[in-house]
Amino acid sequence: MHQTDIPSCRPTIAAGLFDKKNEQANKKPSKPKFQSIDDLLNHILLDPGILASEPLPAVYRNEIKLRSWRFPWRTSCRDNIYQTCDRRLVELIAKERAEWDKVNWQQKVPTVIKSISNLEVSKAGLEELLVYWSRVLESSTPQTEQSKANDQPIGYYSNRSLDWHKATFSELLDRMDEVGKDKAIASFSTRYDQQHPGATLKWLDWLKLTHPQMYVYLHPQAA
Predict the structure, then answer these.
(1) Cβ atoms 222, 159 nearer than 8 A
(2) Pick from 190, 109, 119, 199: which is nearest to 155 by CA?
(3) Cα-Cα-Cα-Cα dihedral of 134, 140, 143, 148, to 10°?
(4) Rg of the chain (C-alpha set)
(5) pLDDT under 70 in the chain at which residues?
(6) Which residues of 42-175 form beta strands (DSSP E)?
(7) Which of 35, 65, 105, 190 has the lowest CB atom count within 10 Å?
(8) How far apart are CA 187 and CA 219, in angstroms?
(9) pTM for this one?
(10) What CA–CA distance (Å, rounded) separates 99 from 122?
(11) Cα dihedral sign for 79, 80, 83, 86?
């Protein structure tokens, strides 16, 4: 009897421990998943655990750093005056503060750039920046056909250096000499536009508007 009693008790003990572990596991908070910088901003602003004036928790700071995400008011290139801040946002804040102090708004630019960096590290600061950014977007003029064509290229042609654009355009011109313009463009489109239809034509329109000297230098007839 002594030997049969011991096994009979084991299932009850094991089940209790197992249920307790499951309960603890279910209580463990799961790490939020972010799809974009906008998604992450929404999480920050809606997180009740973050006090407005306190620095952002490490989970948010690390996510931005690991994914190399930029806030919408940040640019990919560094400028001598505006650093990596969108000039429209800087000028908007600078002009507002200059009006308060009755000084030239350009004098305010350096301090505005510093303040933007300080505002980005707290919940209240991000809310303030988003209000300013919404004003920037509202004041932007509607896109014309020319300004649309002036946007950065998409798909295969996006995020490339000027040297890459020159080399690829030169390759297209060589192909045009062999099979003609329409067939050459059709060939590029077949190869590179599968995910973004029209990317090749958009790229050529962008080159004509932003780098006309490239056309003249590479192929005078294309100017």
Answers:
(1) no
(2) 199
(3) -80
(4) 28
(5) 1-32, 141-151, 215-223
(6) 74-79, 83-85
(7) 35
(8) 19
(9) 0.51
(10) 26
(11) negative
